[in-house]
Amino acid sequence: MSGAQRLADLLPSLWRPEAGETHLLARLLEAVGGQLDMAGAQAQHVLRAHYGDSADAAVSDVHYLHDRSARGRAPVNVREARDRRELLTYPYITDLARLAALLDLPPWREPASIAESVEEYRERLHDVLDAYRLGLTTRAALAALTEAALPEDMSAPPAARRWPFHIEEPAGLTRRRTPVGVPQAGDALPPLWRWRPQQVTGAPQVIMTGLQAQAGAAAATEGPLIERYTPHQMPVGIGVGVRATLAPGHSVRLTPVWRSALVQDGVLRLSDPTDDGTDAAGEGPWTAVTGLPPGAVRALAHAPDGTLWMLLDDAGSPALVRWDGATATHVSAGAPAGAWHALAVRGDSLYLATDAGLHRCPLWPQDDAFALVPVAAVPEAVHALRVTGDGLLACAGADGLALLDPSDALAERLLAGVGLRTALPVAGRWYLATDQALLLRDGPRVYRYAGDAVDERQSDWDPITEDQAPAAVSPLPAVRALAVTADGWLWLGTAAGLARWGVADAIGTGAGRATRLHAYPDLGTGAVQALAVDRRGVLMVCGEVGVLRCTGRDLAQMDFAQGRWLPLGQAASEYPDALTEQPRAHYRWNREQSRWESYQARRGRFAPSAPAQRTVASARCGGWLELPALVGHFGTDDGSAFTPTGPVAAADLVLRVKPDQTRILSGGLPYLPSHAEGADWRYLQLEPQPLEVPDGRPWWSCEGRLFPPPQQAAPWPGHFRDGTGPFALDGRYADALWSYLPSARLALEWAAAPAIGVRVHLLRRTPDERVPDAVTARVWQLIARTRAAGVPLAVCVDGVIVHQS
Questions:
Q1: 57 and 118 Cβ atoms separated by less than 8 Å
Q2: CA–CA separation, 584 vs 575, rounded Å?
Q3: Residues 623, 628, 634, 636: is their CA dihedral positive or negative?
Q4: Inter-residue contact 55 to 99 (CB < 8 Å)
Q5: Cis upstream peptide for 158 (omega within 30°)
Q6: How far is 225 from 654, CA to CA, in rounded Å?
Q7: Who has the most CB within 10 Å: 471, 517, 667, 677?
Q8: Which residue from 25, 346, 192, 117 is spatially nearest to 715, judged by alpha carbons?
Q9: Do residues 480 and 528 touch, judged by C-beta distance below 8 A?
């Protein structure tokens, strides 16, 4: 009702103007009523301007409504996609900025290409306030502020609006460069010199510099090699050498990087290691490996010598193949009959899971006589293998879970008599999957997943006895793969797609935060073949829809044709249409109907869920494996910075492995090993060919090979000293010797241990996208507020640090 009409209703009926009258009283009422209407609208505008949820909102903004009327548009319909897009992209920010001044958060207006709209600005303010509510030094607050700082494309569908990122924690951000030297003898190192790094982690970056050869004082730097030396383990040593002679003052730098192997339509593909900071492991591209025997790859394993072992299936006939980067070796001796299922590497052996039991193949047999031998402790069918953090080999099969110690003796058997398909250890507990159920073994207690109820007063895990385990049933499809990510979610690779179980915001149920099963039928209901979590905590999902990636917040699908990740939105959200984003519901699997059902909070019941598939057609992928690698550069080093002059050819980088003190073998794909507790590092040189072995024994080659008697321990490095030096009474040097002249200078750069930093990775949305400096600066300015005292923080783009505390 207009103001004039309300005033007229206050008058006696005899004085009340009729419709259409234009006498003085009627005009007076219209004039005063119009002013009252205007005052009401202004008062409403003032009230809206004082609330963050409504300030500057286009739907009630006078300027927007007048502009829309001038364009001949009908009143706003928020259900229409075109109108909704206009509301989300409205650019004029005034009152909202005044409110945000209380938080010192002005709108971002420069550069114009990524200037904020009203709704983008409002979303950022909500994220910042969420971060304050969560506590500024928490991971959740860091994620909220990172999301607040990144631009959002309000014109895109909800699943593609947000910029993808990932938080890596813990991360070794503090790096330390350590030149290696001989005490009281300088920095010129002879072969066989060894040392033990302190408080370091990961693989080092290595810089080796050539020396000027001098008669009786120094030798030329021919074939320099760096080795991790573990004399009481197998293998004894893993090293990388360079087939080159370094000129005096010239250097070679070896940098550890990552790559990955991908099984696509049964074909093995590898990504090439890069040194430009791009993530070759997660981004690809992947190139097919040639020269392999016929058959589809079904399983992969990476050995310490850089070789890849694979299980092939050639029209139902299984085969075991070892590939060293150039040559494929078929291992047929001792091959069992029946189906083969999985591979795992532990110590000096490869293990094969088959219907005929567990089999073992030595990685470095004498004369390369590879052969499979049965493991007596596990004669039953084995379906999955996993090496635990304490060195046990877990074998999930027809007789429960067998845990083998390093000598392949049975250390423990869990759920004997229960047929298992896969197993995953988490914080002392075991998640175990049968054909019909997901089980949890926690100490002596056994539980069955039964989360088909939404009521938090009812546990998702029902206690059962071991006798009940074989017949236990869960409201899930058959589970074939398990993984846990850093945020605590248990991911399930099932015969009907991807799912996860954990704690989520139970919006719409009144439960606050509650345990939920999230299923993803909108990403496909085909079988998931494998789950893998990389070094940064990113989950890779392989299955009928190709490869999916989950960074914890965001889901994406690899589009191999375009070489890019297609955004699929947030893992905690659902997208029923092009306009709507809502919290992902709680799901269950209806075994009778073989379908997913989601809980409808408004109706208070489960209903069939058959959403439209949001993924694109892709080649089937059967596995993804992250592999360590390295890149080499020639250049010069001034002691603090290395200046590259050119790359080292891949053929000139060689991996060398010592199964024991007396043997040296060429390995496969070269990489720098990570430091291990109790390990020493050695500077060596590649053995010259032919190698001239003197008559005296014992004798060690310049590459550290021991010639008989084999019981002689490797020497402590000696020194050019007489008996009056400071080492004269040091027992370690009593029998030390110098067999070789100094031939190189060496410096290593390590990540300091313990790794306590946090690294925020900004991910490119397209392969050639340039992340603007303004975006990284915005992210840094906001997340710097969350840094806990003493905890390093960094922002990275494709692995390259752009801001660091």
A1: yes
A2: 9
A3: positive
A4: yes
A5: no
A6: 9
A7: 517
A8: 192
A9: yes
Counted residue by residue, the chain has a size of 805
- DSSP conformational letter for 218: B
DSSP secondary structure string, 283-335? H--EEE--SPPSSEEEEEEE-TTS-EEEEEEETTEEEEEEE-SS-EEEE-TTP
Average pLDDT over residues 581-604: 91
Buried b (16+ CB within 10 A) or exposed e, 643-657: ebeeebeeebbbbbb
**Residue 51 vs residue 449, higher pLDDT:** 449
What local confidence, expressed as pLDDT, does residue 512 receive?
A: 56
- The letter for the amino acid at 416 is A
Q: Cis peptide leading into 235, omega within 30 of 0?
A: yes
CB 231 within 8 A of CB 196: no
Helix (H, G, I), strand (E, B) or coil at 437: coil
Packing angle of the helix pair 773-783, 139-149 (nearest 10 deg): 150
Averaged over 550-567, what is the pLDDT? 91
CA-derived radius of gyration, the chain: 33
**End-to-end CA distance of the chain, in Å?**
61
- Prior bond of 477 cis (ω within 30°): no
- At 340, phi and psi to the nearest 5? -115, 145
Rounded Cα distance between 428 and 443, Å, is: 8
User: What three-state secondary structure class fits 254?
Assistant: strand
Give the other-Cβ count within 10 Å of 247's Cβ.
14
Could you give the C-alpha distances from 800 to 200, 763, 765, 794, in angstroms and in order? 21, 11, 16, 10
The C-alpha atoms of residue 115 and residue 103 are separated, in whole angstroms, by 19
DSSP string, 424-487: EEETTEEEEE-SS-EEEEETTEEEEE------TTS-SEEEE-GGGGGG---SSPPEEEEEE-TT
The answer to whether the beta carbons of residues 238 and 227 sit under 8 Å apart is: yes
> What are the residues facing 516 on neighbouring strands?
502
459-483 pLDDT, tens digit each: 899 999 999 999 999 999 999 999 9
Q: State the Cα–Cα distance between residues 498 and 79, nearest whole angstrom.
A: 31
Which amino acid, residue 30?
E
Q: Where are the alpha helices (DSSP H) in 105-151?
A: 118-134, 139-149
Each residue's pLDDT tens digit, 204-223: 999 999 999 998 888 999 99
CB 560 within 8 A of CB 490: no
Mean pLDDT of 313-329: 93
> In this predicted model, what pLDDT tens digit does every residue of 98-135 receive, in sequence order?
877 777 778 877 777 778 888 888 888 887 777 777 66
Distance CA(765)–CA(780), nearest Å, equals 19
Question: pLDDT tens digits, residue range 490-531?
Answer: 999 999 999 999 988 754 444 457 889 999 999 999 999 999
Residue found under tokens 């070489």: 563
Cα gap 548→550, rounded to integer Å: 7
Amino acid at 758: V
Cα–Cα distance for residue pair 132/369, rounded to 1 Å: 63
Q: How confident is the model at residue 342 (pLDDT cuts 50, 70, 90)?
A: very high
Q: Please state the three-class secondary structure of 347-380 as a single string.
A: CCEEEEEECCEEEEEECCCHHHCCCCEECCCCCC
Interval 541-545 mean pLDDT:
95
CA 748/CA 180 separation, integer angstroms: 8
- Given a contact cutoff of 8 angstroms between Cβ atoms, the answer to whether 549 and 555 are in contact is yes
- Cβ-contact 384, 396 below 8 angstroms: yes
Residue 758: half-sphere exposure toward Cβ, Cα within 13 Å: 21
Q: Is the dihedral of CA 606, 611, 615, 620 positive or negative?
A: positive
Which residues 6+ apart lie within 8 Å of 198 measured at CB?
none
Class of residue 428 by CB neighbours under 10 A (exposed 0-12, middle 13-18, buried 19+): exposed
Question: What is d(CA 255, CA 258) in angstroms, rounded to the nearest whole number?
Answer: 10
654, 670 in Cβ contact below 8 A? yes
Asked if 521 and 611 touch (Cβ cutoff 8 Å), the reply is yes
